[in-house]
């Protein structure tokens, strides 16, 4: 595996959870030429601005981690924003990267691209074989489009644009908004607030029976750089690149009930947990088949409870940003 640390690398979305983790990992590996832009400096949904940025900033590698993300509530409430923003950002970056001769790009997708009732664990070839989970279908369709954009530029122009499909991620720089966050930050915050107030109980959404897989974002960053730097056979125009779409996860899942009890333990909440079955559960199970990536030489390092401690400590250190 070739690791070109002298290459100029653009990390789109470096202020988000995944992008910031990728930047940390690249720096730890000794990369010196890392390009980042804030939202104020570059609006990734502005096509002309993105084209101008790539035209004036020569880069060798692009990590496309920028996206509008959220949990079940956010996806259900803002479907138009989720499909429009993500389609626009990925289209602008991928096309502009191609136009300016960027040969290598890594697009970060999501496990929600797979059908709701996909055979478990979900293999890469399950894509487009069934109906998506309705609660996040617009977001999933945008991510599927990103995969197909990468594949299409590879086939037509011989680019080396790869896609990684992470399972549910958590860790430092996560979104802890009380309504628009994913399950782990939502639970960490809810149990923390309950502990601080001395509440006797916490109400959790759904039945607690769905199975979910979780990956710490530092592991995701390590996997992303690993996949970007894997050697690949010489591409031929009009052929499918071998590494255009690959799952990233632990290959291990747990019930939402087990997760919730572990979060309560990590936070130190000693009250009762009650379940509200009127709230949506989402897909019954989402476990990634990660055998392809494991066979290529990468596997996760951070166990769930250890990762939860890390995420909770980050929240405690930054909770002034999440008050209200």
TrEMBL record:
UniProt catalytic activity? GDP-beta-L-fucose + NADP(+) = GDP-4-dehydro-alpha-D-rhamnose + NADPH + H(+)
The protein's matches in InterPro entries, at most eight in alphabetical order, are given as:
Epimerase_deHydtase, GDP_fucose/colitose_synth, NAD(P)-bd_dom_sf
Return the EC number: 1.1.1.271
Q: Which SUPFAM superfamilies match?
A: NAD(P)-binding Rossmann-fold domains (SSF51735)
Q: Where is this site: Important for catalytic activity?
A: 110, 112
Quote the catalytic residue positions.
Answer: 139
Keywords from the named record:
Isomerase, Multifunctional enzyme, NADP, Oxidoreductase
* Enzyme kind, highest EC tier: oxidoreductase
Q: Residues that bind substrate, according to the entry? A: 190, 205, 212, 281
> To which pathway does this protein belong?
Nucleotide-sugar biosynthesis; GDP-L-fucose biosynthesis via de novo pathway; GDP-L-fucose from GDP-alpha-D-mannose: step 2/2
Domain NAD-dependent epimerase/dehydratase, chain residue ranges per copy: 9-230
Which residues hold NADP(+)? 13-19, 108-111, 143, 166-169, 182
What HAMAP family does UniProt report for this protein, alphabetically? GDP_fucose_synth (MF_00956)
Q: Which family does it belong to?
A: Belongs to the NAD(P)-dependent epimerase/dehydratase family. Fucose synthase subfamily.
Explain the purpose of this protein. Catalyzes the two-step NADP-dependent conversion of GDP-4-dehydro-6-deoxy-D-mannose to GDP-fucose, involving an epimerase and a reductase reaction.
Protein name as catalogued? GDP-L-fucose synthase
